[in-house]
Design a protein that fits this description.
The chain has 5 helices and 18 strands. The protein is mainly beta. The chain has one domain: Beta Barrel (Porin). It has an 18-stranded antiparallel barrel. A hairpin with a 2-residue loop joins strand 10 and strand 11. The longest helix is centred in the C-terminal third of the chain and has 21 residues. The radius of gyration is 23 Å and the shape is globular. The chain starts with a helix and ends with a strand. The relative contact order is 0.13. The N terminus is likely disordered.
């Protein structure tokens, strides 16, 4: 059964590479509406309270609250302020986006302000753009996951549309257009420094890394080839594609190969081990829009750097034993060890190997204006656990978006979603744009 996703990816890739009849629509523009101002200032303010229904038998609950009695539910209050602005003068453009998060939880209240993006862009010709500063490159075609986004931070599949913090880079985009089947070619080289005070979370510090992307618009198919080299992260190669088979049907895929990836895991003896080996990740998906304005997104994701079902079970069992040891003896060494291994490894979103993502959203059902209900399902194909998240969004007030979302997590003992610290959560988000 493991070969089926790979066959699906190859089939979609080949299908997307075939020529097909194009679809075009005529649009009329009012020039006064599209005149660009030399500056832009905007952003949003957000308030987001969350209520978690705790699972006190779950391993990840014990990892967080082994020495606490939190009851059956836990409140959390979040607020965010995201500001962005740009200024253009001649061939230069300056863009800045900042993000301030406030969270009040069981740990108390804390605030963090980050520069998500801040870069200077120079465009000496219509074919060449040079950027330097902190930015997100947004590589990859996947909706929930992007295994080929080598110079971007990973998305949160539970909310993949959020803006992400970038890295400090120097990059260029060179674009050429042609007539014939090959319509556009662009090349994007990227330099990624990783030093003590610059991109210190990109990987091993003290190194300059290099990445590149080659883009082709071939037979109306978007195709990218990516590369990342350097000593901060293992060398990797990738590719992606996207193709509109019809105006309402799109297929896409990604592929990534990582050389000598180091995976840190716990052996059954409790010893933390780093095993090196080549890893292959890929994604295949479709997006379909119906005549009733319902959008369906379906993606399969193979995470070649992920953990097997047995490796996750060993970790969850270790956490249980570590918590028992702490309660009986007061010695928290094993619990601390479990926390260290979880950070960036077992504790990251979707740490296992095979996932299915499905989302359906419908604009204004039954002619209810400004209302968009949706449901998202993330299934772990390895252990059968899943999260199911219905939501409803209302945007009937100018510049204000209101969203109510619930999430149900379900799974057997020692499964990914079965061992999350909560069985369910309900959150409300009010976001005002300006």
């Amino acid at each position: 059964m493991k070969t089926l996703p790979g066959i699906l990816f190859v089939f979609l890739w080949l299908l997307g590479s075939l020529p097909c009849a194009g679809f075009a629509e005529e649009y009329a523009f009012d020039e006064s509406e599209i005149e660009k101002k030399p500056y832009h200032i905007g952003g949003y303010a957000e308030f987001r309270p969350v209520l978690y229904g705790l699972d006190r038998d779950a391993s990840l609950y014990k990892l967080k609250f082994c020495d606490r009695e939190e009851g059956s539910a836990l409140e959390e209050y979040n607020a965010a302020l995201q500001l962005e602005g740009s200024l253009e003068a001649g061939i230069a453009r300056l863009f800045v986006r900042t993000n301030t998060d406030y969270q009040n939880s069981y740990l108390g209240g804390h605030t963090r302000t980050s520069v998500y993006e801040g870069f200077l862009s120079i465009k000496p010709t219509s074919s060449l753009t040079v950027d330097i500063g902190k930015k997100t490159l947004k590589w990859g075609k996947g909706y929930a996951w992007n295994p080929a986004a080598f110079v971007d931070r990973p998305k949160d599949p539970d909310d993949p549309g959020q803006n992400l913090e970038g890295f400090v880079v120097a990059s260029a985009d060179y674009i050429r257009s042609f007539s014939g089947p090959l319509k556009t070619v662009s090349f994007t080289p990227v330099a990624v420094p990783a030093y003590e005070d610059v991109n210190d979370d990109f990987g091993r510090t003290g190194h300059m890394n290099f990445a590149a992307k080659l883009y082709l618009l071939l037979y109306d198919t978007d195709i990218d080839f990516m590369f990342l080299g350097g000593a901060s992260r293992p060398r990797r190669f990738g590719a992606d594609f996207s193709r509109n088979l019809r105006t309402n049907l799109e297929i896409h895929g990604e592929f990534a190969f990582i050389k000598n990836h180091g995976k840190r895991y716990l052996a059954e003896s409790g010893e933390a081990i780093v095993a090196e080996g080549d890893a292959t990740s890929y994604l295949a998906g479709i997006r379909y829009l119906t005549e009733t304005d319902t959008t369906y997104i379906l993606e399969y994701y193979r995470n070649g750097t992920g953990y097997s079902e047995n490796e996750m079970s060993v970790f969850f069992s270790f956490v249980d034993n570590a918590c028992d040891a702490y309660v009986s003896t007061g010695n928290g060494m094993l619990l601390q060890k479990a926390g260290n291994v979880a950070a960036g490894n077992y504790g990251r979103p979707n740490p296992m190997r095979d996932y299915l993502y499905f989302r359906a959203s419908r604009k204004e059902p039954f002619d209810i204006l400004y209302l968009t209900p949706a449901i998202t399902w993330i299934l772990n194909l390895d252990d059968g656990s899943f999260s199911l998240s219905p939501e409803i969004e209302y945007d009937g007030v100018k510049n204000l978006d209101l969203r109510l979302k619930a999430s149900l997590l379900k799974g057997d003992r020692y499964s990914e979603f079965g061992e999350k610290p909560n069985d369910w959560k309900v959150e409300f988000r009010a976001r005002y744009y300006f």
